[in-house]
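Sample entry (236 residues):
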Amino acid sequence: MDMTTTAFDALRGIDVSLLVPLTGSPTHLGHMSVANRASEALQDIGAIVKGIFFCLASEEYAQSKASTDRVNLTLKEREEILQCNIDDAKECGFFQNIQVTYYGPETRTGHTGQYDKLQKEFPAHKVLLAAGADLQARMKTHWSRRPGFLAVVVNRGEQTGTNEANCLVVSGQPELGQVSSSKIQKDANQGKEIEGMGQRAKHLFQTIVQQSKSSKILSNGAQTQVTQKPASCALM
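Predicted structure, serialized as tokens:
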């Protein structure tokens, strides 16, 4: 572990909760691994992990990342895939004896607002952020100046650039380190085998992808008929 231990040593014997913010388009076992590794790291230093709380980006934020070469998941679809991933991860042995909860979508205050809300809801717990690769680059801008803020940063191989005393940096699981939502979307779009998702989550995502493709085919067919009709009428 690459860290200054003082702030985290104080967590020994203390009840803590982890907030795990995700965009989730889609979520995958790499995200589950970040949460699991963060909880293990805290348990290793003697903290008592009482709960893991996942939150998803707002519909507005997710749509701002929309692209024509990927399936743009609705909030409901992202929530359902997240729950499947949680169930799949538990079957892989993650989250032993820890309550795992979906804490809802982010509001206009983003994941900082979710963090504050969770801390108010559980005043007897110390709430920490669990951050993976997607959130690491924004750590300094959004979080580092917040009083008492602590984060567990799960490094998937590259340098995190995060070495402040309020960040505990741990290594992720190598076999899940290169899993990404973008790659899953790309593989699904090209009809390739999807890796990094459990069976429930993968089946649900593949179903959504197929429904989306079928919808586009029907839509394109309807548009073709509409554009061809005036031409045939003109020949009459």
